[in-house]
Amino acid sequence: MKLLFTFLFLGASQILLANKINFLSDSDTGSSLHLMWKFKTNGKINSSSCSYKDLIYFGSEDNSMYALNRHTGMLVWQYQTNGKINSSPITDGSKLFFLSMDGFFYSLNSQTGKLLWRFETGGEKKIDTWDYYLSDPVADENLVYFGSSDSSVYALQLETGILKWSYKTEGSIHAKPVLHNDTLFVGNFDGYFCALNARNGNMIWKFRSIGDLYFPKGELQKGALYYRDNLWFGSRDYNIYALNPKTGRGVWNMKENGSWIIATPTANGNYLYFGTSDSHAFYCIDITTGETKWKLKLNMRTYGSAAVLMAFFFRMF
After folding, report:
1. Cβ pair 119, 99 in contact under 8 A
2. Of 120, 136, 170, which residue sits at a domain end?
3. Distance between CA 261 and CA 280 in Å, rounded?
4. Are 109 and 168 within one domain?
5. For residue range 64-84, what is the model confidence (pLDDT) as tens digits?
6. What is the pTM of this model?
């Protein structure tokens, strides 16, 4: 039996690579990666892609959103904004949503790239050298949600882009919100993690990161993971946190000496997996206790999430 999987790698090399990994028959233990195609943009690629049927979508720091044929890598359409696109797009099959550094949130026809609507925020900005991303959106059947550098969380109507509600926080929001049932969870650059009512934007609870001597705000740069009735996220105060999503109270935290934890964790079974920044480490920890099960030394920083496939790990930088 042969199983075929396609992985799309995005990176600062300005090239989108598509690799196919072949898992061969049970009697053949070999596996291999084969380059299917590559596509070059005119800017760095810091965000992730999304796909629907035969198309894959991604943004670039050349200010463009791209749609490619995922089988051939051929360009289907390209939409130009007036700012870098470091927000990962999402699609509902007919519409594509993303945030640009030009201060607009966009909805495009996913098949043609035609502009459907756009919404102006209070402005987007890069906080510092290590701030590579803008907030990725999430959506339900009626609304699309995202954070902004203007410190607000926005909920817009999917079809029209009309503002449903907004909530002002204490700091810029470049993390991806997490939507679970009718609650929206998101962290910001002032070290606060909030739970909001997704219907009206009212705050349910707010958690403050511990902070550190050199990073007293404990900035929350990327999104959280909701898994088995807990929330997990990393911080620039060197901690990874586990919170109770109903109360906002801490379950446990683990401090990594001398390194930010930026990457959104990945969970599988009873274990949590994540990479670190300056300490160049990759962890497997117990989700119940926070105990380290094993630790792997890497050769560079990790800001992206890991992917688990069967018995294999794929680390996204």
Report:
1. no
2. 120
3. 10
4. no
5. 999 999 999 999 999 999 999
6. 0.91
What CATH number is attached to the domain comprising 13?
2.40.128.630
Of 6, 132, 130, which is closest to residue 71 (Cα–Cα)? 6
Q: Per residue in 204-235, pLDDT tens? A: 999 999 999 999 999 999 999 999 999 999 99
CB distance 152 to 122 below 8 Å: yes
Where in the sequence is the domain holding 79, given as residue range(s)?
1-120
Of 120, 144, 159, the residue at which a domain comes to its end is: 120
Which has the closest alpha carbon to 178: 214, 139, 149, 207?
A: 139
CA pair distance 172, 220, nearest whole angstrom: 10
Total domain count, the chain: 2
Overall average pLDDT of the 1-5 stretch = 40
E runs forming strands in 169-248: 178-180, 183-187, 192-197, 203-208, 225-227, 230-234, 239-243
Distance in angstroms (rounded) separating the CA atoms of residues 220 and 241 = 11
What are the residues whose beta carbons fall under 8 Å from the beta carbon of 243, sequence distance 6 or more?
193, 207, 230, 231, 232, 249, 250, 251
Residues 140 and 288 in one domain: yes
**Interval 288-314 mean pLDDT:** 83
Same domain, 257 and 115: no
pLDDT digits (tens, 9 = 90+) for 21-61: 444 444 445 556 788 899 999 999 999 999 999 999 999 99
pLDDT in tens, 174-206: 999 999 999 999 999 999 999 999 999 999 999
Distance CA 6, CA 79 (A): 25
